[in-house]
Amino acid sequence: MKMKSIIYSVAAASIAMMGFDAMACTNLLAGKNATIDGSVLISYAADSHTLYGDLQYLPAADHKPGDMREIREWDTGKHLGNIPEVAHTYAVVGNINEHQVTVAESTFGGRHELADTTKDAIIDYGSLIYLALQRSRTAREAIKVMTDLVAKYGYCSEGESFSIGDPNELWVMEMIGKGGKEKGAVWVAIRIPDDCISAHANQSRIYRIPLKDKQNCMYSKDVISFARKMGYFSGKDEDFEFSRAYSPADFGTLRGCDARAWSYFNRFKSGMDAYLPFINGKKGAEVMPLYVKPDRKLSCRDVQNMMRDHFEGTPFDMTKDPGAKNYFDVPYRYRPMDFTVNGVKYSHERAIATQQTGWVFVSQMRANLPDPVGGCLWFGVDDANTAVFLPMYCSITEVPESYRQGKGDLYNFDFDAAFWVNNLVANQAYHRYSQMIPDIRKVQGEIEDKCANDQPAIESRAVELLKTNRDEAIQYLTNYSVNTAQNATARYQDLAKYLFVKYLDGNRKKEKDGKFLRNEYGMPAQPDFPGYTQDYYNQFGIPSCDHLKEVEPEK
């Protein structure tokens, strides 16, 4: 019997939400009638402190009877087992396949006793994503593939929320194991209405299940009975809530997780203040819904920019809290997130955009275009706030050199790797944020504006080529995606060097017409001394700073 092996790079967020520090990925979703151009949108930030950002490509393949698939745990690389291959697997670029099916995730952990650690459970959540992408032509088919696989081979991860979409439908599926007591998992999948937006961010978001709506809701037959058996639920079936049973909320899941979904809703839907009591853990507060209808239709750029959110303009605004005062309004907090002062526990906010992101994308799926053109993965590496979203079409057959697996890793710096270049830009800004971010936004905006402006013409040309020569059309899109990404990496290399020179030693070089100024003798002009923010200076009006006061000498 022939054995085939596909080994994936470590490509997901922290597996166990044992505490506030472990919280990871964010998914934002929009249905086709909630977007300006009819796109179905799924975004994903793969947040992990040990995750390297690259873009993988899995070509379509035919398999012979007896061929086996090696399953390795996505987070650790541990060999879990082997399962039979299917006759044909579809091509996959990142988290989208050639049929525009997209699958993303966020780990909610849930009841930790339900993680199946027995040797009989060999399918982890990460492998499940790629098995679904390689074996599915629609979102509904992906759900069936995923649930059938865990029923047959067992599920060895903790609680997981999956975003599953195609050009016509958008679903959120939540799944958790049975702790080895029974094989498989309990799960529920709910279709997001076409005119709505949804989100999940490391906490189970499905409460009441519309049990009778078979068209828009699917669930395991034992999703309620297993909860009864485990003592998690004892009421009537119609009162069952998946999240309360399998992932009870606490401060970390509400403020560190659901608050991210709330921020997305709040940006595009009025009246979301009504759910602040829920986010703040008030007893009896109304639960925030799984989805809402936005006040206006969203664009792909809207979702890209939302992935850069730090709660700006909300009660949780990270540019306004004490942590921003010493670092130029920087909306980032280093781990650990929680700390104690005078016996009182505190915790920093956890926003959508975070420094430890490996990669981020917004997947654009469109029914009005043929699959090779309709599926576009707007892909970036490192922190979404400073990354650039670049178009990677679902039909491309080559990954840009600077985004390839093996192009550097977390222990090997490579200036030609997009991940490292983006980190050079971002990590400089973390220490001079309010001063540097305008320079970053300028370059970032120019690149993304060009991609958005070029998109109609590029896609029109590709559609025309598809009518006569499919291979030529796919090569055209491949060349475009590769060249765009390589050019963006070069721009960011220049940006990284520019920031270093401009802000060297706490100063700020003077510029004119894009060039640093020199004096009449050719020497560098005297730089500006921008100093700190006023919030920083305001901290000095306390007795412990009296030794810094300017005092005139006594006469």
Describe this structure in words.
The protein is of the alpha+beta class and 555 residues long. Helices cover 28% and strands 19% of the residues. It has helices at 125-135, 139-153, 225-230, 242-246, 251-268, 276-279, 300-306, 371-374, 418-429, 433-468, 470-502, 534-538, and strands at residues 3-4, 27-30, 40-47, 57-58, 61-62, 68-72, 79-84, 88-89, 92-93, 96-97, 102-109, 159-165, 170-177, 185-191, 197-200, 217-219, 291-292, 338-341, 344-347, 357-365, 376-381, 390-393, 511-512, 515-516. The strands form 7 sheets. A 7-stranded antiparallel beta sheet has the order 17-15-2-3-20-21-22. The longest helix is centred in the C-terminal third of the chain and has 36 residues, at 433-468. It is globular.
Summary tags:
single chain; 555 residues; alpha+beta; seven-stranded antiparallel sheet; five-stranded antiparallel sheet; 12 helices; 24 strands; 28% helix; globular; disordered N terminus
- Low-confidence runs: 1-23
Beginning-to-end CA distance, first to last residue:
97 Å
Strand coverage percent: 15-25%
Task: Tell me roughly what share of residues is in helical segments.
Answer: 25-40%
Number of separate strands: 24
Integer average pLDDT:
93
The coarse silhouette is globular
Query: How does the major sheet shape up?
Result: 7 strands, antiparallel
Q: Which structural class do you get from the secondary structure elements?
A: alpha+beta
The total of helices stands at 12
Taking all Cα atoms into account, the compactness measure Rg is: 25 Å
Strand order of the largest sheet: 17-15-2-3-20-21-22
